[in-house]
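Usage

Read records sequentially. Each one opens with the input sequence:
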Amino acid sequence: MIKLYDGGAYVINGSRIVPELEMTAERAPAGTDIEKDEARKGTIAHAILMSHNTSDSTERLKIKFDAMASHDITFVGIIQTARASGMERFPLPYVLTNCHNSLCAVGGTINEDDHVFGLSAAKKYGGIFVPPHLAVIHQFMREKFAACGKMILGSDSHTRYGALGTMAMGEGGGELVKQLLCDTYDISYPGVVGVYLDGEPNPAVGPHDIAIALVGAVFKNGYVKNKVMEFIGPGVAAMSTDFRNGVDVMTTETTCLSSVWRTDADTKAYLELHGRGDEYRELNPADLAYYDGMIYVDLSRIKPMIAMPMHPSNAFTVDELNADTADILHDIEENIKRRFDDKVVHISLSDKVKNGRLHVQQGVIAGCAGGNYTNIMAAAHVLKHAGLTNDVFTLDLYPSSQPVCLDLLRKGTVADLVAAGAVMKTAFCGPCFGAGDTPANNAISIRHTTRNFPNREGSKPGSGQFSAVALMDARSIAATAANGGVLTSAEGYFDDYKEPVYDYDDSPYANRVYYGYNKGDDRIPLVYGPNIKDWPEQETLADSILLKVCSKILDPVTTTDELIPSGETSSYRSNPLALAEFTLSRRDPDYVGRAKAVRELEDKRRAGDLDDELAAVYDILEKKVGRLDRATVEVGSMIYCIKPGDGSAREQAASCQRVLGGLANICREYATKRYRSNVINWGMLPFQMKEDANFSVGDYIYVPHVRSILNGNTDDIAAYVVSGGDVSKISLYITALTAEERQIIQAGCLINFNRSR
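and closes with the structure output:
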């Protein structure tokens, strides 16, 4: 089904894979050089990266993007940061969508205030504004901006438009601010992994089945981490572009940097349908291309899949789950108990098994992964002559854009689904991050959405509410609905199915979207709601720092949603201090109080009052390291995780720590580049350590001369742990930093760095 090659591989004429160790001059196309470095230039990714690189170096890239996109959880903070840094206009097309917090009022603010702010910013600085419920961010970008050979940056982790030949990347807000200030996205040249698709999917297999199989094969082993996934091979042509989009968006869950696909006649037809045929370019690898890794996928052997809680990589075929239901559910229950305090969180999956079959309570098909035309039309095919026939099981569908919804309406598809008992809703990302369709406590939800991380669906384990989410393709979700909520594979439901041709109508956009690029008017004022606040001031980094350990998390992976919960907390997104109150609230509820206490120590130090607690720590330290200039040592909080930052690109995962007085993260490795970039852009030190963490919550870690160390080698940074009356030495390190990143940390955050310029 899926094979991962050991080491690199060459691809000849886009159709034959040769492992690196087996490559000879005789196998190469006539007149080609099999020198690896030269063959690396034969990938699609290389051509796109080089065409956007403004650096003289081909190894240290400085990228400028063609367009950017943000949604309403992130764009207020980005614009506020850029404005504070001196931005006067949007220098590239910048799309502001309102698909994440489209509800009228939740939690801390009236969300429409932020939408009004976004429209005023689009008019003032020259942006594109997409009103609420009109489109989810990534569908709008597919329909209106993604094009062959382009690069797009978004402040959402699922910024992936590779199926249209666009290399797109999801990053924290700081990286978008840099583009708004005409700076660059600085990365080392990434590895490129080929994904060779062969055969064609079975009729019952949808894009989520292929995506879940891929994520299951490569996430845990890090095969594509921070690399570009390049989809090639004859199997690409076996899928429509809309189908490919559904696979492509899920590459984010592999932790790859970006993705890109070879393009063909169907890509061209998609662009022509959306009025942009002139943006088509045929993209294929060169006659000889070298890939740093190779994934071979036989599409014909992919079966309907399910990703069980609590990660998209927890992959099984539906048949495997149905054959071994009891044992699989038992293992998941035990994993949940290990992750959470089972005295607070109770989850029982096994009691959902009746007559050997798993019964689920909810189905959702939504967002940039599930809400595409091809998926909803497939679900409607299953349900046209079958009702839900269950008073417990519910099915909600969210088309990814109003143009998609409009065609479903005209074809009668919406009527068929509503008649079957499904509920049709508007374009909204809520089910993907916990702001819509939160299941009942102890329920099981099956979803064609992007993630099934803990709490991602909106449950609150700290309050004793926890529900389980599994990811499935829309086709199998519809089959489950037709079977009364009994978990069912789509096999057998699509043998006679032929997808009706999609008819795109731009009217919903033409009548509602504000297109203001290059039309900014600096006389227009920004419109602030009462909950929109500026970022608090941050101090520059001192020469030496004292960190207090305020949280220590030993889970294999800590997601962004655990660092700063999504869902209802997003209503505080434009108020940094109010949002910070939720930091780690679902994983370590005492963290905020601990961090605030440390910030009070630092506030007193800056006022010239050295706290007795700190004085005692310095007394102990000086016996080991000698005299300290106590008044000049900056004091801040710190969290330790084994592998933090998987998932969302939201910069608030780092900024919330920072506004509470955070100075550093320490970890074994960072789950994603984007989270590490957020840490850096908010002026925190991205420490790593190879050994086990020999410190506990409440201990202190002294890092002398760290500001000076940032100017040189960061491979071995001496630090000292104060635990009780004892002092022990540890070694920290920071992986490669650009010159600008070093200066950002020293300045205290990106805003300070830009102001200093």
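Summary fields computed downstream for this record:
- The chain has four domains: 2-22+33-61+190-301, 67-183, 325-490, 545-756.
- The chain is about 30% helix and 20% strand.
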